[in-house]
Amino acid sequence: MPLLVIDSLKKGFFSPGGVRKPIVSVSSFSLEAGEQVALRGESGSGKTTFLHLIAGILAADSGSIQIDGADMAALKESARDRLRARSMGYIFQTFNLLQGYTCLENVLLGMAFGKGTDKDRAVALLERVGLQERLHHYPRQLSTGQQQRVAVARALANHPKLVLADEPTGNLDSTNAREAIALIRQTCRENNAALLLVSHDAATLGAFENVREFSSLNNPEKEASL
Fold first, then answer.
1. Strand 62-67 relative to strand 70-71: parallel, antiparallel, unpaired?
2. What is the pTM of this model?
3. Residue 68: other Cβ atoms inside 10 A
4. What CATH class is the domain 4-225?
5. Which of 50, 128, 147, 163 has the most CB within a 10 Å radius?
6. What are the CA-CA distances from residue 222 to residues 36, 79, 186 (Å)?
7. Where does the chain have alpha helices with state H?
């Protein structure tokens, strides 16, 4: 069975006038363990909502999201949080680092929500992403590219089976963007983690062999017409 299996997934939001607008309507999608897939989609197409549903940050209106045999969409919020901490890593476009904590502390805090902190692993991951001289620096003391590297280390801290990346190069220049994608892909391979990345950037998508159109998966217009 694939690591990730999505079936009949739907999510919509209500406008101030009380009209429900469908945002995500994905009939089926799957991802094998260790597989790396990039989804191409324009801004506002529902890509981030799709990742948030997979991660359990948002609750689905209907459908199922099977992750390593557990249905994320059927769980209550606290159980979704536990499943996310145990099985997933999330790389946000804006990094979401805690500004009052050092690089090392940011990674350790990410671990605290999973199986527990492991300082040796946290240090090893930060060294792996080239931050061995920045362990005790705060995010404000780092370049944008360095902050992204902390976010990558944090996402991999709990040995995730699935890594989600939401426009991870959106705030990087072209050189740092290339390095970030290479780093994310390589570290996922080393950890045998599946990778699902969404982006609208041609250069980012060009680094992947398996690129799929989000519009071919997502059809909220069809749902709205029913």
1. antiparallel
2. 0.90
3. 18
4. alpha beta
5. 50
6. 28, 32, 38
7. 47-55, 77-87, 103-112, 119-128, 144-155, 174-190, 202-205, 214-217, 220-225
